[in-house]
Amino acid sequence: MRGIAKSFLGVSVLEDVDLDCRAGEVHAILGENGAGKSTLMKILAGAYQPDAGTILLGGEQVHFGHPREAQLKGVSIIYQEFTLLPDRTVAQNIFLGREPIARGMVDERRMEADTEHILRSLNAEAGISPRSLVRNLSVAQQQTVEIAKA
Question: Are residues 53 and 98 located together in one domain of the fold?
């Protein structure tokens, strides 16, 4: 991110912010309440549009008009508050809005198999069944489902 700026109702929240992230690195953005941390992340994830500046991904300039566009490029945000549907299964939560379709219907079998694959890739499949209702999961397991959704 280069030169990112954002204001709300004439109040500047971010001015000329640069941020470099590389694959495999872990980053922490620290600051007081109201410092613009969440705003910066929401710009990166496509939830907000910057007033100025650019976002580069793999050396190419990108513009995310919507969080889904960012997700398709591998950029997503996991919020502190869960966004899971408690009365739906793990698989249904992970694939919400992008369910695999076969013969005009949701392919539950494929969705569950893909969920198992995703959980295995996170080394998190133990104790989490794709068929489990989210409400029956521990907080740690729910956080894992949030990560799997991303």
Answer: no
Residues 105 and 137 in one domain: yes
pTM: 0.66
The torsion angles phi and psi of 90, rounded to 5 degrees, stand at -55, -50
CA separation for the pair 9, 23 (Å, rounded): 35
CATH number of domain containing 26 = 3.40.50.300
Helices 139-149 and 108-121 cross at an angle (nearest 10°) of: 100
CB 34 within 8 Å of CB 9: no
Residues 60 and 97 in one domain: no
Residue type, 46: G
- Residue whose entry in the numeric block shows the structure tokens 């996170």: 122
Per-residue pLDDT of 44-74, as tens digits, reads 999 999 999 999 998 899 999 998 899 889 8
Q: Where are the alpha helices (DSSP H) in 1-150?
A: 37-44, 67-72, 90-94, 108-121, 139-149
Parent domain of 96:
90-149
Number of domains in the chain: 2
